[in-house]
Amino acid sequence: MTRVPGAPNLTPQFCFSSGALRDFLRLSRAAVDDSIAQHVNALVTPAKAGFDPQSTSRRDLTSSNHRVGADACQSFRDNVLFPAWQARTEVLNYCGLVATSTDPDDPETAIREAENQKDRERVIDERLDPYSARFSPREARTQSLAMLIRQERGVENIVRNRTWDVVQQRCSTSREKWERPFQEWREAHVALAECNTTQ
Which intervals of the chain form a coiled coil (predicted)? Predict the structure, then answer.
């Protein structure tokens, strides 16, 4: 079974370290989504029905031999795919909350305040210098994080749609989108996790 990177220890420092956040998302996507065709192919057991010598004389992609068994697909979805998606969802949700919260520990707050004060004191005369009105304030790290989270959510949606298309082609005849099965898995997973913590 594929080894999926576990969810990192969620702290504001992890979120503000854009390199660490991006690395986690990249590694998680690489482990499951980027190689989804290989993962699904690995679920097929070709010798199960026996070898048909006639199969080498024709190419039939619609054959039932190319469809993955329902149990293998369900196991892959429940134990590999959805847990990877859940870990990334938790990271993006947590970091999204950090991005919308106040940040009293921002090391650049004093620098931004000084730059803003200096900008208020500037004399602007566009007749002498047409560029004198230009001022590019330094972005707060929460703003940078919010922009990064928006971008990564967009990437995540594209990745999940592409991955789900491959899974559906090989595992199912239905054409439902990934959102409902993932939500159902999450609800069952959360209920199971709560049950385990109360015991």
Answer: none
Q: Would residue 190 count as lying in a domain?
A: yes
Write down the pLDDT at residue 170: 85
Alpha helices in the chain (DSSP H): 12-16, 18-31, 36-42, 70-76, 82-100, 109-121, 141-171, 179-198
Which domain range does residue 88 map to? 12-42+67-103+141-198
- Yes or no: say if 35 and 58 are a contact pair by the CB < 8 Å rule: no
* pTM, two decimal places: 0.72
Determine contact, residues 137/122, Cβ cutoff 8 Å.
Answer: no
Q: How many domains does the chain have?
A: 2
Q: Which tokens in the block code for residue 28?
A: 């998680």
Is a pLDDT exceeding 60 seen at residue 124? yes
